[in-house]
Design a protein that fits this description.
292 residues; mainly alpha; single chain; 9 helices; Four Helix Bundle (Hemerythrin (Met), subunit A); 73% helix; elongated
Length: 292
């Protein structure tokens, strides 16, 4: 027989079957239906939104609680740690592809389809017959002037403020990581609370931006291709920031409970990876959606 340490390094932990993924799917579906109904004025009421938020947050915290318990009771071996690192890496890669598809849709609409609709490079003047008077300028609300005239959100206003907030949060979580590796738990916790506060501030300002866009700028999901791509990209990013802020809060509470060690803290690192990914995506959004 080998030594206990060798046996532990070869053991692979398999969690018990769980209903959390399916229940979380239900909560997120209710949230998406509720928000879509609100934006589309379909009068579904606020119940799906609050039901989705409450159910999702409850499940996420309970799910994280179970994972934390498994980690703190020594269920994870070195092999499990490597698996988590690979899993998180592939998850972030899939998220890159996810946003890459949306950035691709924006590029296609702005750089390929819009010039074609305006007659650029067209051998037949079908665009004149189908959409007379259409101007191939960006931002566009479509050939039929869908949703009416609208105004865009200036890049160097709330979007710039949110950019500064997210970049600052990237700095604070990095400082928290250095403090954790140095064994300075109190400093790590303070840096993490600062990161949580910055994430919550970003969400507050984005919500205020959406309200301003809908009620004062007439920039809605009905504002043609610009409105749909704008809310698709910034909205999905906002969902990722929301999930990231919840994860930051969980990690902070775990730090306060004495979890994580200077040389063993992948739960912290995984969230930090995710948060840096969210920062990078926002920089792309700020440049492509708001600025250019």
């Amino acid at each position: 027989m080998g030594s206990p340490a060798a046996h532990d390094s070869q053991r692979y932990f398999v969690p018990a079957p769980s209903a959390w993924p399916f229940m979380l799917t239900v909560g997120l579906a209710a949230l998406v239906i509720g928000v879509a109904g609100y934006l589309e004025h379909s009068h579904v009421g606020p119940v799906p939104i609050w039901l989705g938020v409450g159910l999702s947050v409850y499940i996420i915290f309970r799910w994280f609680q179970g994972v934390a318990r498994e980690s703190e009771t020594g269920q994870y071996s070195a092999q499990v740690d490597r698996t988590y690192r690979w899993g998180m890496s592939w998850f972030i890669f899939s998220e890159v592809m996810f946003f890459g598809a949306f950035f691709g849709a924006l590029f296609y609409a702005r750089s390929l389809s819009l010039p074609w609709l305006g007659g650029e490079g067209a051998k037949l003047a079908t665009h004149v017959t189908l959409w007379p008077g259409f101007e191939a300028v960006w931002p566009s609300n479509g050939p039929a002037n869908l949703g009416g005239e609208f105004q865009t959100i200036p890049a160097f206003d709330v979007p710039l403020l949110n950019t500064i907030i997210l970049l600052t949060s990237g700095f604070t979580i990095t400082m928290a990581h250095h403090a954790l590796k140095a064994g300075k738990r109190t400093a790590c916790i303070l840096w993490m609370w600062a990161t949580v506060a910055l994430g919550a501030s970003f969400l507050y300002f984005q919500a205020a931006e959406y309200i301003h866009a809908y009620h004062e700028l007439n920039l809605t999901l009905h504002s043609g291709i610009y409105g749909s791509t704008f809310f698709m990209l910034t909205g999905f990013h906002g969902m990722h920031v929301t999930l990231g802020t919840i994860m930051l809060l969980v990690i902070t509470l775990r730090l306060m409970a004495g979890h994580f060690k200077p040389d063993s803290h992948f739960g912290f690192e995984g969230v930090a990876w995710y948060w840096h990914f969210v920062d990078v995506v926002w920089i792309g959004l700020f440049i492509v959606v708001y600025w250019l």
